[in-house]
Amino acid sequence: MKLNYRYTLLVSFLGLGLIYGIAYHSFLMHLLGHDLLSCLAQGLFFGLINYYMSTGIYKKYHELKDTNVLLNNKLNIDKLTGLLNRHALDLLYQEFRHEGIYSSIFIDIDNFKLFNDKYGHHVGDIVLQKVSNIIKNSVRTSDLVYRYGGEEIIILLYDCNKGTALEIAEKIRMRIIELENNPYPPVTISLGVASYPEDGTDVRDVIRASDHAMLKAKELGKNQSCASSKEYNTKIIPQEF
To answer: What's phi and psi for 193, nearest 5 deg?
Structure first.
């Protein structure tokens, strides 16, 4: 609880205590014979007790809330990348509610097996972390980024049409190309884009369609973005190294 809130709360309870003391003196003085000063002191004491009880309850509430957040993070956050994990994606499938348009970008790191097999899994982990950080910093805080499994990442973009999603995919791809990865080979990614409602009736269908579009990008030579519809399903020429 911030200091100014504590101060406001303390003043409020002390004020209520004074009101209580005055009322106590006015209505019960003739029965108990307590003077005004004694009644005011009792009122202030009553106010202090309520203040400390309230701040204690507030502190305990936030401790429990923070504990709940930590538990949810352990269940839904991928430890290596900090992205949402497969469990969180399964929850999305069950609970997704969005009446407007949205898009999915399915991302796969090209030749990722090479990093693991030739240079070691620790190098593959570093590459995955670098790519994940670039992706997180390339989308809005309202967008959702999941590690689907291995080197595959899914982005869910709310209120985003296919054209805009494809532009975002290309922005991410270009940033990955610029990624410093010495002394290891350059990193590239293949991306597939799909949107609701043209590519599926629900979020699972849309993500599946973006996966198929990503596989098309792989077939076309990797390091490019493809969309699931004919309008956008054209090859985007990758930048030469």
So the answer is: -125, 135
Active site residue 231: no
Q: Assess whether 134 and 203 both reside in one domain.
A: yes
Segments forming the whole domain that contains residue 222: 86-227
- Residue 41's nearest CA partner among 16, 13, 21 is 21
Whether 122 and 38 share a structural domain: no
Do 40 and 148 reside in the same domain of the chain? no
What residue spans of 145-230 are helical by DSSP H? 162-177, 203-219
- Measured distance CA(210)–CA(227) in Å, rounded: 7
134 and 222 belong to one structural domain: yes
**In this predicted model, what pLDDT tens digit does every residue of 142-171 receive, in sequence order?**
999 999 989 999 999 999 999 999 999 999
- Which of 63, 95, 99, 151 is labelled catalytic? 151
Q: Is the dihedral of CA 158, 161, 165, 168 positive or negative?
A: negative
Same domain, 72 and 128: no
- The pLDDT tens digits for 1-56 are 455 656 666 666 666 655 655 565 555 554 455 556 666 666 666 666 666 666 66
Q: How many CB atoms lie within 10 A of CB 88?
A: 17
